[in-house]
Specification:
This protein is an all-alpha fold. The protein contains 16 helices and 2 strands.
């Protein structure tokens, strides 16, 4: 049941204290992310004086190298406990982020960015495993609620960054970078003091460090999730370019639709996410998301054919539909990403889950600007059909995955497995 209150509310259970600590830590770190990400490109180009093309190349190299850390870090989390590994990655992120203050060349920038992405990818794998343990019997519902405060943290950080951008001096940007570094350190302190040190779960005899790659249903789901992840940059990258270059909508429309997208996700994520827990429910939610994107994409295409006073309203309608689809898509990904992963290998599986998302995001700019934008209205229509087809594959993949798991000897329901494992924690 969803309750209303002034502070973060989490499902009751033996790990509710750990859940609150994870929510607070994630909120703090995402405020830092919002501060830095909003102004990062401006800092690298205007303060460090790197050409935009070099910044893009460095970030691409860093992003691709960062993919290598996902599964190894997940295996370490499964072997030594997720909290230990996550704390280590948070410390590394604090150091690498602070190092951006000292860069003065493209080589230094690329090196620091690569180390930062390796730490970030490793953090995602270990953090996902920690969420699975702290989530108790309903990790997907907890992750959906957590995302609400993650989004809220980014919004708060983005607002704070606006002041530094307005000042537009090196000290102002330096404060943003160091504040982001401090946010990782603060998040680590919160996790250290508020989250139990969960012991690793016993691993079956047939466990392998790369066994996730042999789990064809899960790999298929990750491939779908990676492709559907284009929808995130549809709002953050494609829509701003489309509205400013192909419509008569006033420029403030870009900021409005971005704010509405964040607001809808904050308001609806917990409410809708609480209804999507099992893999089967996740498959249906994935299909529902694809159908909503099939509606939102043509609506956005129509903004090029209407008067200036209609375009903002139509854009808002399109992004509202898209945002509801985004909530269903993220809720589906949590249900399938956690529900299909064996409890003893959550770190490894979350590592592949993160790799899939990061790979999709790395390809998104090329696909969205090079294909969709180049085709104009037709590109929007094809994008909507593409999302709908991906969504339609969600239920069959979820059913396939459930069949393979139910056929395994000694398989238990996820809730039963997690309940049985709950005594395996120890507090420092």
């Amino acid at each position: 049941m969803i309750t209303r209150g002034s502070g973060p509310q989490v499902p009751a259970g033996p790990d509710s204290g750990a859940q609150r600590a994870l929510i607070f830590a994630s909120f703090v770190s995402r405020v830092g992310n919002g501060l830095f990400n909003t102004a990062a490109v401006l800092y690298f180009t205007l303060v460090v004086h790197l050409p935009a093309a070099q910044v893009g190349a460095g970030l691409t190299i860093a992003g691709l190298c960062g993919l290598a850390a996902g599964i190894p870090a997940g295996n370490l989390a499964d072997r030594y406990g997720p909290r230990t590994i996550w704390l280590t990655t948070l410390a590394l992120q604090a150091v690498t982020m602070a190092a951006f203050v000292f860069i003065d060349s493209w080589l230094a920038f690329t090196l620091v960015a690569t180390l930062d992405r390796l730490a970030g990818t490793a953090s995602g794998a270990a953090g996902g495993a920690l969420v699975a343990r702290a989530g108790g019997e309903r990790p997907a519902a907890f992750r959906a609620g957590l995302r609400t405060f993650v989004n809220l943290g980014v919004v708060v950080g983005t607002v704070g960054a606006a002041f530094a951008i307005q000042i537009d001096t090196r000290p102002a940007y330096t404060v943003l970078i160091l504040a982001n570094a401090a946010s990782f350190a603060c998040a680590g302190l919160i996790v250290f003091t508020g989250v139990p040190n969960y012991r690793p779960l016993p691993r079956p005899e047939g466990h392998r460090q790369w066994s996730v790659l042999a789990d064809r249903p899960y790999v298929s789901f990750v491939a779908l999730y990676s492709a559907m992840g284009l929808q995130y940059q549809t709002v953050s990258l494609l829509v701003p370019i489309w509205l400013s270059a192909h419509t008569d909508a006033p420029r403030w429309t870009v900021a409005a639709v971005y704010a509405i997208n964040s607001g809808v996700c904050v308001v609806l994520q917990r409410r809708l996410g609480a209804t999507v827990e099992t893999p089967r429910q996740g498959g249906r939610a994935f299909r529902r998301a694809g159908l909503l994107f099939l509606v939102s994409c043509p609506l956005m295409a129509l903004t090029a054919d209407v008067p200036a006073w209609v375009a903002p309203a139509l854009a808002v309608l399109a992004v509202c539909v898209h945002s509801v689809g985004e909530v269903w898509e993220s809720s589906a990904s949590f249900a399938l990403g956690f529900g299909l992963a064996p409890d003893h290998a959550q770190g490894q599986y979350q590592g592949l889950f993160g790799i899939g998302f990061d790979a999709g995001q790395a390809l998104a700019p090329v696909v969205l600007t090079g294909a969709v934008l180049a085709l104009g209205r037709t590109g929007w229509l094809l994008l909507g059909v593409f999302f709908a087809c991906l969504g339609a594959a969600g239920p069959p993949v979820a059913a396939w995955a459930e069949r393979t798991r139910s056929g395994q000897p000694g398989a238990e329901a996820p809730a039963e497995r997690r309940h049985a494992g709950s005594p395996l924690l120890e507090a420092d």
